[in-house]
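Per reviewer request, we include the raw input and output of the structure prediction for the construct analysed in the revised manuscript.
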Amino acid sequence: MRSTHNRQKSLFCQQAEHEYYAEWRRIEVILEAHPEFAQWVQTDLTGLKRPGTGAKGMTAEQMLRAAILKQANCWTYGELEVQLVDSMMTRSFLKLDFGEYYSDSTLQANIKRLAPTTWEKLSNSLVLYAKEVGLEAGRVIRIDATAIESNVHEPTDSSLLYDCIQSAHAQFETLRSHHQVKAFSAAKTREAKSGYSEPRFPVSVKKEVVL
């Protein structure tokens, strides 16, 4: 059985009086002003199943708040689990009742069910809200890049040279097919490849272009 919202905070889950919680409290105000956020999350969690049957689980509101804290504080699921057990501020923010705890696997199983389209709807709504209250004009986009492991070769000098030769040869072939280059001496890609496999020997490739 899964509910959308918690009706109210438990008597055992009081708001923490700490300056660090002030930021969380501002997040709470936004979430409480947009109850539709939890409705969107509820759709991802239940799908076509009947939410009124089965064991009691995390509410959609709790799941959304847990996801926000995890991302905002860069916590792992294990660290989030510890916070739910040990931190009064975290328990208050998630509206956890006395004796209510969730393991890292449960948290992961719930949070990963949030669809990308739901995150997009949440982001767009927050931008509109920030514009309405004057926090953000929405005219500037802030982006970031994250380096991830990918299937690329090690960028040695010889491999980069070989890549340049291949790219130049492909571009000259394209120009010739469009009759933009009358004649050119093809790059010796086979020789370049042998030089790439044996990087101790330099590769000399000559090209003559007639425009």
